[in-house]
Request: fold
Amino acid sequence: MCNYCGCREFPLIGKLTAEHEVIANAAGRLRTAVTSGAGDRVELLDDLLALLMPHTDTEERGLFVELRAEGSLAEAVDQLCDEHDDIHGVLGAVDRAAPDWAAVLAALDRLHRHIDNEEHGLFPAAVIALPIAAWDRLTPQRSDTAA
Reply:
């Protein structure tokens, strides 16, 4: 994850970036458990899903709404939403009795690329594309902004 453009200074981008780091770490723990056969892989999968669901909801109901309204990044947002659906679909549909760990690993690869695309593509572009009024709407006003 980058530090060069300053987009993390925008509260929502900073929050989403911090969540990406936590998600990437959880995905790494799951990948290690799957490839080594050690640890409770299903529990680690559930932990990852518990992080992903509210994160993507925040993106899709906040930043992505503003970006679609602005228009110039709407196609990129649509692609990222399709990736959310794909990754959630695979990870959420794992048969707990007979998991397809190869499919999980492939989804984790896509998740890694997805996060990279948001961090190095969409987030910096959003800072340029969105007007201040949009960022004002996106700035959390609740006391949980430090999360």
